[in-house]
Structures are given as C-alpha cells and as structure tokens.
## 1
Amino acid sequence: MISWNGGAERIFGWTAEEIVGRSIRQLIPADRQSEEDRIIAAVTAGERVPTFDTVRLHKDGHLLQVAVTVSPVRDAGGRIVAASKIARDIGEARRVRAQLEDSEQRFRLLADNISQLAWIADPTGWLFWYNRRWFEYTGTDFEQMRRWGWSKVHHPDHLERVNASWQDHLASGEGWEDTYPIRDAEGKYRWFLSRAVPAHDAAGNVAYWFGTNTDVTEMRDAEERIELLMLEVNHRSKNMLAIVQALARRTVSQGGQDFVPRLESRIQALSANQDLLVNRSWTSVPVCEMIAVQLPFLGEAKAQVEFTGPDVLLSPSAAESIAMAIHEMATNAVKYGALSVPGGRVCIAWSLGADEAGETFTISWREHGGPPAREPESRGFGTRIIADVPRSKLQAKVTMAFASEGFSWTLTCAAKNVMPRLDPAPRPSFARGWPR
C-alpha cells in the first residue's frame, strides 16, 4: 500500500504511518484471500473491478462490511503502475436494511394473518396493496384489483353510494367508515364494516390511506333477529291479554268449582312456553318439538290439534321463523278460528319432497270445524310473522287461504334452507295428537 487517506483511517482504524508499506492482504480475512488474487489479475489485465460487497478486517480484528471498487492506475505512457481501491463502510446501511426487512416481514406477518381484509391506497384513492386475506376471500389477484379494481367485487346496488362517500373523505382527509356487501370467491355477498385512516407525511399532507374490511354478516343477522324478537315480544304481550280472555271464556263455559285453578294453570302454561322458546332458540330442534313447545298455552284446546310428519331437524333460524308463525296461527285460532269452539280441529303436517332444484320441505296448517275464515281487512304485524318473515328468512313460498271450512297455510322451500344438514338415511315418521 502506497497511499492511505483519512477516510481509510476512520474505516479501518490504521493510521497512514502504520499501514503504508504493508500488504493490502493484511486487511483481508484468511477465507477471502482469493478475492485479492482475482483483483490483481483483473487490474493487471487493465480491467476495472465493479463495486462489490465484501468483508474486511479492522485494526482491532473485528469484521467490517464494506463495498469495494478497484480500478487500474496508469502512468503517462499508459502502463499500469498501481491499483486504486475505494472502500465504503456499508455496515450501517446493512443494519438499516436488515431492520427494514425485519419490519416489513413483521408487517406482512401481521397484515396477512389478521381476520380483516386490508388494503392501502394512495392520496387519490387508487389501491396499490392488499393483504393475503383479501385475495383469499375475493378469489382475485393484484392485477385484477389494482387502482379501482376493488369495485368489481362490491355489490352493484351499493357501489355508487360507497364510491361517493369514499371520494368525499379523500377530499376532506377525514377518516372514512361505511358498511356494504363484498362478493366472495364463490360469488356470494357478505356484509363488511370498512374503515380507512389517512397517514400523513412530514409536511402534513396525506401520503396514503390504510383501510380494513371486517365481516359483520353474523352481527347484522343477530341484530335483525333481536329486532324481530323485540317486535315479537311486544306483539305477543298484546296478544297475551286476548289469549287469557279466550282461555277465561272457554273455562267459564265449562263451569265447575275449579274455575280459578284451571285458569291459573293455563296462564302458567303460557308462561312456560316462553321459557321453552328461550331454551331451544339457538339449537337445532325437531319439527315435532318445535310445534309442541308452541301449543301448551292452548290448554284443553290442544286436544283439538294433531301434527304429523317425518323426523326433521330445523336450524335455529328456521325453527325461530316457523315457530313464530305457528304461535301466531294458534293465537288466531283460539281467538276466532277452529280452536275457539269445542268442535274445531287443526291439522299440522310437514313432509320432505323433491323438485327439479333438489330436496324440498313443506309444512301446512289446516283448520276445519270452526267458524268460516275471513280475510283480514288490513295487513298487520301478524301477517308479517305468518307470511313475510318465512318468505324472507327461508326464501320460502307461503300461501294462505281463507275458506268457509277454515283457514289454511302452506310453506314450501328448499330443504337446505331449513335443515342444519341433510341426512340421506331413512327418516322415521312421526305422528302425534294431544291426548284428551
């Protein structure tokens, strides 16, 4: 070595007085000596050695991460007389890069394993990054989703509204929140709560937006069930007085000294029915048990009801919808239908069948022997319970008839809409009437 500047002193720890005149190989670890052989060969051939990353020795013996560039030095006659070596300490840069790589790895580990769909957009709203969960859910890839590609998986009925809201928040720079359906890889839509927050640069400008989509389908369904049940509770509370009045009239007509005990027992049966509904509402329930739970409030009139059908399990939502309809029709029958007179009869029947679309489920309510049925002049909450709720919740076909021989009701839908699972094994039939 014939030259050694201040930068070399700072990097390697040797002063010029200590190192000039020694071999360059003193700076090269034993396992890297072959590098110098290749460098000398290249310089001797008049070639420049492009910058490469390597390891060199500090004066105290520790290893240094450096980037080295070597060029031949020529005299006035063009002869190669030396080699110019430039070494740059890249240890700090390596550490920073390693930290960045570690940070990015941890970010991806977090982003790709959270339950939410996540994405990042630029200040104009173009999405340029999605997490793995997004692609798994939507069944898409980045090329399909980049920029405004997300609109392809949003429900068309909500797209215009959502986009307008998103644009407003891009302009204002305020955090954004909305709820809308997103299509999955199978083409089905689920509801998501979407939130996005802006990230600002040093000047205070929005640099990008980070957003997440959280699946809230079950929560929305639960809220709808709670709302419906609250309305049902309100409706049933009003009906209870009418039911109690009907039970009282029926009890009075029978006479006897045990009027009060018999009336009390019937009211207690009505209360017990509410408890049974709560206990069974979120588990699969056989049709026969679902019907039996709804009818104890009828008192002795339950002897006028018979039900028959195969052993079929209903899902919680199906049991809830059908049970509410059965209870409503039983209430109406007690007040002014077949169960308002001793000679009236109600037959509840259900069956499994098949059509071109697959297995079907049918359940019917038939009254006879009571007063002629009359169609109500207006549609109230009772009609919603009997017809609209099953149509919506079970995608069912519901028909009602108000004939002179009595009221009738039929519900038909795909079996998969009401059953927790389809069992191909033969189902034993079930037939039962209440004993007198």
Note: Residues 131 and 140 are 12 Å apart (CA to CA).
## 2
Amino acid sequence: MDVNQIKQLIKIVEKSDIADFSIQEGDLRIKISKNSKNQIVTNYPVLQTGATTPAPQAEPVSPVVASATPEPTTEADLGSKNLHEIKSPIVGTFYRAPAPDADPYIQVGDQVAEGSVLCIVEAMKLMNEIESDVGGKVVKILVENGTPVEYNQPLFLVERS
C-alpha cells in the first residue's frame, strides 16, 4: 500500500460518519480513528521482516467539519410508500456505470428485478457490483456518481412491485 492510498483512506474516513477504520495488508496494519475533537488520528505500526522499509508518514490533517447530509428516511416513511432502501454493503467510491464512457446501469423510473446490478462500489481498486435485493421501480438515486459512500449508506429507493 502506498502513501497515496493511505491518504485516500484518510479522506474517505474524514468525509464519512465512520468513527474507526482499520485495514491490514501483509505486515502493514493501518488504523484510522476520529477522536472526540473530530480530528483524524492515524497509527502505522509496521512489522518488518527481512527488508527495512520505513513506515509511511502521515501528513497533519485538519479538523473534520461536519457536512450537511439529508435526514435518514425512517422505516415508517418507507413502509407507507412501499419503498425499499438499497444500502451500500461496503465503504468505497460509488459509480453508476461500469466505465466512464458507458451508460449507467439504471436510471430513475427503470424497473429492476431482484439480483439486477444497480451500480459499482470501488474499494481498494476492486470493483464490487451492487445488486438489487428487491424487484420494483427505481424511484430515487441517493448518491452522486464518483462520490465516497460508507457502510450501510442508502444508495437507492426502490418502489416494490
């Protein structure tokens, strides 16, 4: 993992509501935590075997500023409209299409079947296809293309058929 990937992880955690995040890749373990003063704290303990590679150095990070986010939809609101939220199963970057020059998987108003691919969430250079867990009509796309998403964040509203 290079310094740019670490910086990208810090930015994702900084922009999200995630309090703690850790990842291990080989002998490298990274833990990113937000403390009570809304600052990012990073730890880079490295177990060195054989080769001597210096641990990546983190740049100072400014305090996190809370961003305005839409109020989460309550289950009562969803039930009264027969709507279902499709949520992100992972932290990553949301993409509506399989490639930058390709058409989006779905549009608002499209009918989807259970198991239909709705989008991609990229995490650590892996493209993860997100499938619909219900059949119905796409009522709203809740995330902009190319933006970071967090675990369990609502991505789509689908009116069940």
Note: The two ends are 44 Å apart (CA to CA).
## 3
Amino acid sequence: MDADRSLIARLDELARRCERSGRPTYTRFLDPAQVEKAVWSAGRAGVRVQAFGGYEDAERAVCRFFLDEMDAPEWPIGCLYARWDARYASISHRDVLGALMGLGIARETIGDIVVREGQVFLFALREVADYIVANLDKAGRATLRFQCAQELPEIPPAAGRLFRDTVASLRLDAVLAAAYRLSRADAAAVIREGKVRVNFIEEMRPDAPLGADALLSVRGLGRVRLKAVEGPTRKGRIAIALFRYE
C-alpha cells in the first residue's frame, strides 16, 4: 500500500509540474494498472496524458503529461535488439529480465522485453540504454550483443494460438473456464485462491465482468487475451475469440 501511495504522489507531482510549467513531463515505465493511475492524476491536474511503450500493443508504457500535443518532444524510449543462434541456445523473457536485474538496472527503466526465434527486442529509457549495450552480453545460455535501433522497429507478432468458444456470460469464471479448459467450478476456485490477474491486477471475484481486450493470467498456466466479443449465438450464449500466448 505504501508503494501505491508513493506512486500516486509521484504521478500527481509530474502532472502538476506539467500544469504549472506548460512543458511535458514523463513517467518511467508503468504497467497497465499504473497507467490507469496516471490517467487519474492527469484529470486531477487538468492536463492531458498519453501512454506509449515503444511499439503498438506494448504492455509496459511511459506516460506523458502535456497541455499541447504539438509541443511534445520525442519519447525518451530506445529500442535495443540482439540476435543469437537459436540452434544452440534458447532464452526467455525471464532470462533477459534476470540478466538486467543482475546488472542493477531498475525495473521501472525497462519496458517490454520481446523474445522471438533468434532475436530479442528490449525497450528501455534512453538514460540506461548505453549502459545496457556496454554491459549486457549474456542471458540464459545465449551470448548476446545488443545494439541501439536508429528507429523504433515493428515488432513481429506474438506467438500463440487464436481460438473461439462460447460462454454463458462475460463473467470472469466463465471466460476463464473457456480460456484454460477448466470447469466453471475449478475456474472459480482458482480465482478465489488469488491466482488470477486481470490486466495485471489481482482479481478474486468470480463474477467480475470482462470486456474485449482483457488480459488474463493464471499463475502457472500462462496468459490469454480476450480478443473479441462476437455477439450472441442462436442458443443464447456469447461467442468470444481468445488468444493463448505461448
């Protein structure tokens, strides 16, 4: 709770500083739940806010408080990338994040880490980019040589599987059961055990309503996004599209 109050105070101060000076101010990287808090801070200060993580659909983002969009400078975000021979080593998001933490890099200076077959894209604040390039040379069993991209790149789509199902309602337990092939009772039990997050926030209410684009994660089972709500079926159920991340 103290960390939450500290974050809100910091966001409020950035928003008020923008309102007083008329110049844009920037947060560090925030997760989606923290971005919502930045939106509230902007409203309290009477300024505007944008969120950007370096590429479309980024989960972690920097927020910019501003008055006039035309006066906003570039985002303080850089993209680092590296390749390795996937025939001899494999690495995961956790490997790269662990290597960064081992260098003493603060988590809030790092955005998304996107690992694809044989390549990794790392979004970071420019203030730490050169340090990462100079010092991060290995993650897991893969040797890496990072470079700074001259422009923010297009990121290859995430690996996973799109599938469709029908649910009785858009309650969390119903969608979770469809997403992870659980019974409705088992889905409700997992939720009550505190193992489920919706858009990065712990959710313990089986009847919590969901909307399109909600990101679900279950401890030990991975992540699923509710890509679309496609409408009622002839049998009175609701057709949905889900994307299961690998």
Note: The chain has three domains: 2-71, 77-148, 160-245.
